[in-house]
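Record type: monomer structure entry
Structure origin: computed from sequence
Chain ID: A
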Amino acid sequence: MKYKSTIFPNCSTKRKFKMQVFLWFFSLIILYNNATFCAASPHHLKNKFVRASFSRSGLTNLYNRSIDKNFQFSRDDFSITINGKQISGRSLHLAAIQKRNHKLIYKFDNSGYTISLIYELKPSWHFISKQLKIKSKSDKPYRVNKISVIREKLNQPVASDYIPKAIHQNIGPKDFGAFLRFSDQTGMFALVQNPFLSVSRKGASFDISYQPKMKWNPANGAFSSDRGCMGTYRLTGEKVPVDMIPEWKWTQGKIDNSGKTEDKAEIQAFTNCVSKFIIDHHRKPINVNVGWTENDYQIDVSTKAGRDVYKRIIDQASNIGIHYIVYAPTNSKLATHKNTADTWGWGNVLWLGLGKKIRKGQWHPRTSPIPHSIRTMINYANQKNIKLLAYVYPDLPFKEDSSAIVKKNGWRYANLGDRSLQNWLIKNLTAFKK
């Protein structure tokens, strides 16, 4: 068989063949290198406000178009503690990077779990979000002890920070997130959609974590972390005191900025971020009258005299343009304060007065008729263009099913991480509203 070369006409057949094989092999190397380069090249999520760049290690740059500044990250990480064992994102094997619509998804493989790290940037967002999803390879329930959604290090020095805090009963102070300030009068916020955060910062490194302590059943699907959000802005220099002015203190119309303050740009950035996750956007304020301000729990609406008193409250609220009332009077025909089983002692006024009966299984939102004394007040309120809001808190079913109740220092708390309680609340609240 003769071999004819069109590329090397002056070479011997054998030599021509070897040289073409070499060229084919060399071409494959080039193609391989190009493919590898493409796989390692940066990924991007962008809209008209923000451009986020990523490498195989995660987020590397966050560019704010309005202030024309690029915020660079030298580290982007996360950690999860499951059944007491901490798993760091940097220690995991990266299996794949996928881009779907406005999301960039990093898939990690662990011996017992598949972990997805999801970045998202929607068209109207001025920030980027970061969230974890954990899927167990076993059908055995596990406990998620702690999650650090945001573990970052910036290339730019942080000049100062503001970490808003709240004091929670029995668990002490917790953080709401972090606002980082830089010497060029720009800033960055880092938040997680959880009110019980712990924020730590050392230099340009910062970490935001929380402790769900949740037992999770793989039969319910993947466990999702609370969403983290990071955004940037330019500081205005306009300061607002962090602490409220003490009641009855005369300030002569002057604002004291000598203490801890926050910048108006930080307030606006936080507000804009939260507003993107609000389900129902009202263009007008919602005016609510809280019946407790009239001590309505002392009014017994099981009697005509009591209903007449409450109708005057509805009348006055309607006259000044209020459309909602938190309705929590006593209805002695349905329940009394005596032998109230909940810790706060308000069981008899919950669920428009049906709280005790619901807890005992004597009244069911989906099937039981509405008592006359309640229907009468609902109808009267409707005539005045007012809706009655039921006072409800979730530790109601504990006497019949205590599995979702945590007892501490003589108090009872509902464990909202309990799937059975979540299902019970969603089902019954929906039926009750209808």
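Annotation 1: The mean pLDDT is 86.
Annotation 2: The chain is about 20% helix and 35% strand.
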